[in-house]
Design a protein that fits this description.
The protein has about 240 residues and is of the alpha/beta class. The protein contains six helices and nine strands; from the N terminus they run H-H-H-E-H-E-E-H-E-E-E-E-H-E-E.
């Protein structure tokens, strides 16, 4: 009986020691296993990958503003260039052939040939108009253009041509200014008729006296720029 009890105790002891050995062997393999850690969603959100970036609240607001901008390209409003108020007169009619070779010729003789014989117009010659001139010109030219060319030549010698109806008057240039009766307001110019034109120009964005010195270099010896105090207009007198 005692032997049976002893054998039963030995068997129980051996069985318990065998279980411990197997448990130790199983635990020996645990270091070779890959550890698994569970992270919360907050930790994942905190992790930042190299290709990720954050958007600040200010940038988000600016992005919302950009979304409101239209993708359409806005073209600048086209503006037409204003036409010049003073235009060179357009001559009409047939052209005539001229060949002038006047060297130190009498002014009276030149006027008689051009006005009397070629153009066949009536003219009055002031008694103070005298002297010798030089004129060389060839080619085709309109009759009205010939008068303008003659007037330019007379300006060099301090004379001028004034037209009154069908009559042409040749007189000293200094006396042609008070003879004019053409008055123009704004930017409209009548057809070319006389030598002197008075133009009244209203101003909106500038003081008249400030334009006086600016315009004078562009005026001829006959031309003049007239201003009246702080009145919003400027008067141009030019041939």
């Amino acid at each position: 009986m005692n032997k049976c009890m002893f054998l039963a105790g030995v068997i129980i002891l051996l069985s318990s020691s065998g279980c411990k050995e197997t448990q130790i062997k199983q635990s020996d393999f645990t270091p070779f296993k890959v550890p698994v850690t569970l992270s919360s969603t907050a930790e994942k959100a905190a992790e930042k990958k190299p290709w990720e970036f954050e958007i600040s609240p200010k940038e988000a607001v600016s992005g919302e503003k950009r979304e409101g901008i239209s993708d359409e390209f806005i073209y600048k409003q086209e503006t037409t260039r204003p036409e010049p108020s003073l235009r060179r007169p357009e001559y009409t009619g047939e052209k005539i052939d001229i060949a002038f070779n006047f060297d130190n010729a009498e002014l009276k003789d030149v006027l008689q040939i051009i006005l009397g014989e070629i153009l066949n117009v009536n003219y009055i010659l002031d008694k103070r108009v005298a002297g010798n001139i030089n004129l060389h010109a060839t080619g085709q030219i309109h009759k009205e253009e010939l008068i303008a060319m003659l007037n330019t030549l007379l300006y060099v010698y301090d004379f001028a041509i004034m037209k009154d109806g069908d009559l042409y008057r040749i007189l000293p240039k200094a006396e042609t200014r008070p003879e004019t009766n053409i008055i123009v307001y704004g930017d409209k110019i009548p057809p070319y008729d006389k030598s002197i034109i008075v133009q009244i120009v209203p101003l909106q964005y500038e003081i008249p006296k400030n334009l006086n010195a600016t315009l004078r270099p562009f005026m001829t010896s006959v031309g003049n720029v007239v201003t009246h105090g702080d009145s919003p207009f400027i008067v141009l007198v030019e041939a």
